[in-house]
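Action item from last meeting closed. Structure (489 res):
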């Protein structure tokens, strides 16, 4: 992930982790004490330190992301207006007069399908909330906002790529707008319960966010199809099939993952509480729960809006941090994500960014001889080749890990259904058990070595990776010294 994002984004995510764990947690602990109540200057365990971050500092990341998401949309208002105007003003013309590579699915058919989808969503909302007015308001709101954010995400992905589409910002903005709508219609007009309003908010916001994400992905696919001369309407038909299949598959997959590991520690704690109430002692180990930062973030915002138990002081602190970052012209969302994520994720992301920087710099050094001055055309080509190879391998690692996780979840769930049949893979080799921290780090280092070896195969043959690394290290030290040297008066 760090390699794909590059060292700039990785460094800002890591900076957020440093702000959260290295600055805010110690300050909070010194002022308020740590959870073990052992005294401010006595031994503090990792669990105490993490507990302060989890219960307090993490919400500063929530506040920073809310402000960052709204600011991202505001700063891109001209692009958003341009994207919407292009969507409305596009002249489809006569299909017979169009080139094959310019023919899309007819717009009238698109509107018919969209109308059917909105009608089905209305019926679903009515069934889920039990309120005709709430369902009607939610479906109409969803239709408008989904079109708006899909046009924005599609246009931005078409211009700068799907990885730079501000889906997180749009999701948070959608969440805030949806909370306002549900509060007015459900709370003031219909006097719905807090739980029902939370559910209604999640239903509406989830579909809007999914629409924006899919729009960016589809536009990226259409860009690729345009490069190879594909027919747009055929691609769009395939996209519809893909989205339909994905919608049918993702539900059972998430159910299996949740049954095997529990998705998020919050959900795990709630599940264990229900199991204890029912008299069961077969509890989940919440340390093994899957980490779901986006779900936790959205849940915290919704619960805070309707339940009133959001950590507002920390949210406001995060908002202040976001304003300062905006004034410093720094990428707010990246730093905010770093504050919200645990340091165990920020550090590997930073490591991936460093590997990316070293390999890409090595490609340039081997062509241009240094990192100074303007990059030559051949160096740009060499850098792009290394970057593309690393991105492909990194994406393969991510996808492979995800698929293996689902496969292991299938084994775990099957073992729960039919215990004692040797279904768990660790039992096949005499019960390996946990590797422990030391062996896990060595195993992780082995994966990093394989990644570097495969990515480095795209480097120009002339040169040595170790000497290139030392050159990059020296160059980084000189740049750091120059940055920290005060200007002469």
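Sequence:
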């Amino acid at each position: 992930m760090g390699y794909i994002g590059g060292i700039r984004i990785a460094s800002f995510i890591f900076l957020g982790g440093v702000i959260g764990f290295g600055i805010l947690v110690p300050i909070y602990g010194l002022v308020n004490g740590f959870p073990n109540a052992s005294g401010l200057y006595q031994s503090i365990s990792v669990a105490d330190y993490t507990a302060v971050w989890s219960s307090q500092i993490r919400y500063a990341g929530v506040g920073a992301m809310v402000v960052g998401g709204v600011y991202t949309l505001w700063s891109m208002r001209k692009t958003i207006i341009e994207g919407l105007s292009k969507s409305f003003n596009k002249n489809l013309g006569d299909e017979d007069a169009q080139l094959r590579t310019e023919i899309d699915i007819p717009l009238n058919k698109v509107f018919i399908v969209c109308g059917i989808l909105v009608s089905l969503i209305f019926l679903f909302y009515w069934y889920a909330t039990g309120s005709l007015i709430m369902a009607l308001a939610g479906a109409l709101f969803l239709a408008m906002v989904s079109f708006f954010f899909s046009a924005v995400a599609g246009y931005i992905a078409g211009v700068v790529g799907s990885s730079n589409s501000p889906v997180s910002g749009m999701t948070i903005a959608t969440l805030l707008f949806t909370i306002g709508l549900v509060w007015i219609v459900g709370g003031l007009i219909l006097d719905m319960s807090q739980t029902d309003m939370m559910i209604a908010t999640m239903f509406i916001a989830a579909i809007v966010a999914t629409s924006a994400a899919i729009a960016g992905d589809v536009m990226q696919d259409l860009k690729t199809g345009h490069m190879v001369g594909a027919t747009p309407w055929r691609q769009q038909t395939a996209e519809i099939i893909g989205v339909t299949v994905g919608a049918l598959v993702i539900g059972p997959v998430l159910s299996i993952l949740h049954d095997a590991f529990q998705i998020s520690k919050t959900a795990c704690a709630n599940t264990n509480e229900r199991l204890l109430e029912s008299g069961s002692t077969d509890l989940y180990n919440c340390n093994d729960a899957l980490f779901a930062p986006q779900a936790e973030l959205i849940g915290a915002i919704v619960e805070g809006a309707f339940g009133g138990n959001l950590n507002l002081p920390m949210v406001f602190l995060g908002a202040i941090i976001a304003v300062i970052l905006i004034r410093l012209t720094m990428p707010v969302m990246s730093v905010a994500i770093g504050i919200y994520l645990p340091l165990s994720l920020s550090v590997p992301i930073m490591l991936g960014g460093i590997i990316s920087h070293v390999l890409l710099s090595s490609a340039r050094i081997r062509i241009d001889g240094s990192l100074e001055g303007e990059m030559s055309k051949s160096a740009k080509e060499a850098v792009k080749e290394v970057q593309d190879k690393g991105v492909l391998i990194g994406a393969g690692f991510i996808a492979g890990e995800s698929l293996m996780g689902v496969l292991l979840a299938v084994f775990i769930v099957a073992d729960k259904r039919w215990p004692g049949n040797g279904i768990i893979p660790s039992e096949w080799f005499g019960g390996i058990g946990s590797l422990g921290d030391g062996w896990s780090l060595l195993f992780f280092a082995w994966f990093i070595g394989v990644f570097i070896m495969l990515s480095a195969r795209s480097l120009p043959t002339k040169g040595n990776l170790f000497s290139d690394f030392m050159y990059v290290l020296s160059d980084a030290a000189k740049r750091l010294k120059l940055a920290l040297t005060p200007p002469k008066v």
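Note appended to the action item: The chain has two domains: 87-306, 344-419+438-484.
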